[in-house]
Amino acid sequence: MKQRITGALMATGLYLIIANVGNFFFGVTRRFDWTTTLWEAAFFFVFIFLLLGYRNKHK
Length: 59
Fold this sequence. Notes:
This protein is mainly alpha-helical.
């Protein structure tokens, strides 16, 4: 369980960085605003957490 949470948190952190840099690069927003992608990251965390649990269960 701890390994799933750690993996999901690391993937979510990477997602937040990439999403904000992408938003800045493509002109969606001209400043780094972590709250714009925070809800997306929360759902991404849940998805990755469940995916890691499913993957470990069916190995």
